[in-house]
Write a structure and sequence with these properties.
Shape: globular
Structural class: mainly alpha
Strand content: under 5%
Number of strands: 0
Helix content: over 70%
């Protein structure tokens, strides 16, 4: 308990956020570099979409569950250390790619590494923070998404402008490799379930036989709330990942912004709007969810319905100042779901099964959301190019915003039966 008290758990949370920042920095840097990569390697939007989504998602989702199974039985900190070094190393190798398939395979390698970076972290945070603070702690961890995405956009664009896109991959990849040993020295393995009630903190799974785990997984997969939550998050991620990946190209093609200008513009927008949205979701989740768990899902459902018209207005803006202000709102609302929804997933199972539960959720969310999202927008853009030319990407983005309505509907349905599937 002493390990998790006071300032130490804040230090742990801080370095987990830093690792997650590198996770998304390495994941999202491809978006800002899409222009120069497309030009040098002669790629289509569909190919770029496959590299940004499917290439990463294939192994990221497929390996997530077995790695999480291992994390429920072995050291989560060692798993995350190895994962950080692996995905960062493959990010650096992206800078050496000479064609589509080499870059595709390197992006698959990034996905292999990142498969071990998130589900174990969710489990660690749940063992460092009590349940009444969990949504905020998980939301704070999720700061890594907007911060990492913003830094990927900013540093990727600036390094590519100063040198080339290859140097950008190498620089951010090697920085992550250097962080790995520091992560291992700082983060200690906490007792599993020590911050939960006796009913939640079951006997450690470390000594549990495999059939019990299989039974626990079957129980999770039989819960309607799990599927509704996972598919709702996946629907939102189709739009979230897709828009995030293609906005740099949209600002280049439709608004004529240079690489440096759109790096600064989008980096600032992602950082300010994203951090505000993530924290708002965590704060509302803890404040409302402790009285009624359904609010963990109703809060993001409302956020998506507000984000949809805001995105439509922002995409039509002609002034860069107006576009910045309008994009800030949906950028934040797009990430409100992270703290509340991840907290809800943690409470669908006992403490000893949280890594696997998180990995199952991430499998559905990322296979559909990340695997389909970036490719969907790119494929629609290619299909519309003969008719709309450089503006095809604008209409491709319009076509994907309806996924927010699907996400809101699924979260609302899940909220109705969440109490039945809840584990305290």
């Amino acid at each position: 308990m002493a390990q998790r008290a006071g300032g130490y758990r804040i230090v742990v949370l801080s370095i987990l956020i830093l690792a997650y920042t590198f996770n998304f920095l390495d994941r999202q840097i491809l978006g800002i570099l899409a222009g120069p990569i497309k030009q040098e390697l002669g790629l289509t939007d569909s190919q770029l979409g496959l590299m940004g989504g499917l290439a990463f998602a294939l192994f990221y989702t497929g390996l997530g569950i077995p790695i999480a199974w291992l994390a429920d039985r072995w050291s989560r900190t060692w798993i995350m250390t190895g994962a950080l070094a692996l995905w960062s190393g493959f990010t650096a190798l992206c800078g050496l790619a000479g064609g589509f398939w080499q870059l595709f395979l390197c992006r698959m390698g990034v996905g292999v590494g990142e498969a071990g970076g998130v589900a174990p972290a969710y489990s660690l945070i749940s063992d460092y923070f009590p349940k009444e603070q969990r949504a905020r702690a998980l939301a704070a961890y999720s700061f890594g998404i907007p911060v990492g995405s913003a830094l990927g956009i900013l540093f990727g664009g600036l390094i590519a402008h100063a040198i080339d896109w290859r140097a950008a991959f190498v620089a951010v990849g090697l920085a992550g490799v250097a962080l790995a040993p520091i992560f291992r020295l700082v983060v200690k393995e906490p007792p599993r379930g020590g911050m939960d009630s006796a009913s939640a903190a079951q006997a450690p799974v470390v000594r549990a036989p495999a059939p019990a785990s299989a039974g626990g997984l079957a129980v999770l997969l039989a819960k309607p709330a799990f599927w509704l939550i996972s598919l709702g998050a996946a629907a939102s991620s189709v739009c979230g990942y897709g828009v995030a990946f293609w906005l740099p190209s949209f600002f280049e093609r439709s608004l004529g912004m240079s690489l440096v200008d759109r790096s600064v513009f989008l980096g600032a927008m992602t950082l300010v709007g994203g951090v505000a949205g993530v924290w708002l979701g965590g704060w509302l989740g803890d404040r409302l969810g402790k009285a009624k768990p359904a609010y963990y899902l109703l809060v993001p459902a409302v956020a998506f319905l507000i984000a949809l018209p805001c995105f439509l207005l922002a995409i039509q803006a002609k002034s860069l100042v107006l576009a910045f202000v309008l994009f800030l709102i949906p950028t934040g609302l797009n990430l409100v779901w992270l703290g509340p929804v991840i907290t809800a997933v943690q409470h669908l199972v006992p403490a000893s099964q949280r890594s696997v539960a998180s990995a199952c959720f991430l499998f559905v969310n990322n296979l559909i959301g990340l695997g389909l999202g970036t490719w969907f927008f790119g494929a629609v853009s290619d299909a519309l190019t003969p008719r709309f030319g450089a503006e095809a990407l604008r209409y491709a983005i319009y076509s994907g915003l309806g996924f927010y309505v699907v996400a809101a509907a699924l979260f609302t349905l899940a909220a109705q039966g969440l109490r039945r599937d809840w584990v305290e």
